[in-house]
Amino acid sequence: SQTIHQWPATLVQPVGSPLSLECTVEGTSNPNLYWYRQAAGRGLQLLFYSVGIGQISSEVPQNLSASRPQDRQFILSSKKLLLSDSGFYLCAWSPDSYGYTFGSGTRLTVV
Amino acid sequence: DAKTTQPNSMESNEEEPVHLPCNHSTISGTDYIHWYRQLPSQGPEYVIHGLTSNVNNRMASLAIAEDRKSSTLILHRATLRDAAVYYCILRRYGGATNKLIFGTGTLLAVQP
Question: How far apart are CA B63 and CA B11, in angstroms?
Answer without folding.
Answer: 20
